[in-house]
Amino acid sequence: MRTVKEVSKLTGVSVRTLHYYDAIGLLKPTRVTEAGYRMYDDAALSRLQNILLFRELQFPLKEIKVILDSPDFNQEEAIVQQIKLLELQYKHIGELISFARAIQTKGVRTMNFEVFDTNEIEQYKTEVKVKWGHSEAYQEYKQRNASQSKCNYDRVADEMMSLFAGFGAIKQFLPADQTVQEKVGALQSYINKNFYTCNKEILKGLGEMYACDERFKKNIDRFGGEGTAEFVRQAILVYCDK
């Protein structure tokens, strides 16, 4: 068993952060002594290791908690997925470095916007989130995705972005406005039709992901204008709380 200070020294995670993880239920100490000292065993350290890996992969804390608390969570599968995502990011960073070096040697006229494409990473991250957060939905998504051609996948992705652009066009409305709520209903129906059965619980989780995951947020705001991702999240919350 290790004290919170020992865990902090071992991992580089501040004591304050460990206290915060405890407060939000992400990483509870194995036990708390009568004197109030938090103590962590190997199982807790293993969970912390998973938390840190997912954080390196830019998963929000709320989503990490959902993943790790899933009754279907499998450590062996998770590490395979983490390695895959790290490899994708490593490849992406390598391409960006090569691109930057080309600019350095050849000048700013060098053009290659494909190096900024992170669709492969985002698609894989979505699979991970859906699988552990909602295993039945993941299986349905996997079956449907296997039957889609790249051309069809691109069409669906474009149509999804058009939906977000539609949200951007009505950001001046209140999230509870009927027009906005109809847009949320259309988004849910589109996900049901093209990805998996999207109940309100899953839809609410997606709303959080749209606003909290920087990559999703950036992409959605690119199509709908700044603030669209957060607007969609708020509209979804109203829709799901009805």
UniProtKB/TrEMBL annotation:
It comes from Brotonthovivens ammoniilytica. It holds the Pfam family TipAS. This is MerR family transcriptional regulator. The lineage of its organism: Bacteria, Bacillati, Bacillota, Clostridia, Lachnospirales. It comes from the Bacteria. PROSITE patterns: HTH_MERR_2 (PS50937). Residues 1-70 form the HTH merR-type domain. Keywords: Activator, DNA-binding, Transcription, Transcription regulation.
